[in-house]
From TrEMBL:
Limits of the Rod shape-determining protein MreC beta-barrel core domain: 112-257
Entry keyword set: Cell shape, Coiled coil
Name used for this protein in its record: Cell shape-determining protein MreC
The keyword Cytoplasm is annotated on this UniProt entry: no
Gene3D superfamilies registered for this protein in UniProt: Rod shape-determining protein MreC, domain 1 (2.40.10.340), Rod shape-determining protein MreC, domain 2 (2.40.10.350)
GO cellular component: plasma membrane
PANTHER family linked to this entry: CELL SHAPE-DETERMINING PROTEIN MREC (PTHR34138:SF1)
Pfam (any one): MreC
Biological process terms in GO annotation: regulation of cell shape
Region annotated Disordered, chain positions: 262-291
């Protein structure tokens, strides 16, 4: 033991003064490095695996959070687009209500559409509790849509002007020629029967409600003439018109009461949703969308 201790001191002294063992030390470090790496491998592998799992978990959580945020934002964007479209429809409908004059009016929403191809009928969310009555006309922002044919306490059914069993008295706005617009069962087509072949009817003529019969208020747009065909062997022209109202797109309708309503005060007091005549201001044209 003493010999070994003395030899170690001599070797350290020689190495410190003359660096004779530098090469041996480098050789031994190269030889020992694999052993050091193998000894340290479990610890480094454990740390790498732990960091990888942590990073993967964080990435998964961040990904899930971003997906949720994207879904929420997309949903809000869709709702915003729907609210903007509804706001535009309500603005147009309210602008249309200014043409009604001094008649009380009420806005209703569609509940359902009759899917029978031979009947053009819709259901709305207003009824007799809102003082609706059978035969009451309904409009949209573009023109006449139809009339109520059945009124329940909370809902009502309306027949559109394109229903095969519907007819509305109209007149050509340009000439004043009176006729009847008949439903054809096609959502964008009305027929004007018994128009003399020599009558002044042109494509593009506007048809308005004549007010005859007292069912529809006069002066409202009904349709636009899109086709006039004349056969020399037939005394009548074949005239086709397209409804002005958006019968297959409108979501809100405007219900009006006759201008000669004898005493509208009880009607207005019992239903605050009914628009009071001659009391609207320009500021009321800003319609807030329903949530």
């Amino acid at each position: 033991m003493l010999v070994l201790g003395t030899l170690s001191i001599v070797l350290m002294t020689v190495d410190h003064r003359q660096h004779h063992l530098e090469g041996a030390r480098a050789f031994l470090s190269v030889v020992v490095y694999p052993l050091q790496w193998l000894v340290d491998l479990p610890r480094t592998s454990s740390e790498w695996f732990r960091e990888s799992l942590s990073a993967r978990r964080e990435l998964q959580e961040d990904n899930a959070s971003l997906r949720t945020q994207q879904l929420v934002l997309n949903t809000r964007l869709q709702k915003l687009e729907a609210l903007e479209a509804e706001n535009r429809r309500l603005r147009a409908l309210l602008d249309s209500s200014f043409q009604v004059g001094d008649s009380p009016m009420l806005i209703a929403a569609l509940l359902s559409v009759d899917m029978d191809p031979y009947r053009h009928q819709i259901a709305i969310n207003k009824g007799s509790l809102d003082h609706l009555f059978e035969g009451q006309p309904l409009l949209d922002s573009q023109g006449v849509m139809g009339q109520l044919i059945h009124v329940g306490p909370l809902t009502a059914t309306a027949m559109l002007i394109t229903d095969p069993s519907h007819a509305i008295p109209v007149q050509i706005n340009r000439t004043g020629l009176r006729t009847i617009a008949l439903g054809t069962g096609t959502i964008d087509r009305l027929e004007l029967p018994h128009i003399p072949i020599n009558a002044d009817v042109q494509v593009g003529d506007l048809l308005i409600s004549s007010g005859l019969g007292g069912r529809f208020p006069p002066g409202y747009p009904v349709a636009e003439v899109i086709s006039v065909e004349q056969d020399p062997g037939n005394p009548f022209s074949e005239v086709i018109a397209r409804p002005r109202a958006h019968l297959d797109r409108s979501r809100e309708v405007l219900l009006v009461w006759p201008p000669d309503l004898p005493n509208p005060a009880p009607l207005l007091e019992s239903n605050p949703e009914i628009e009071k005549p001659a009391q609207r201001t320009a500021s009321e044209t800003e319609v807030a969308p329903t949530p």
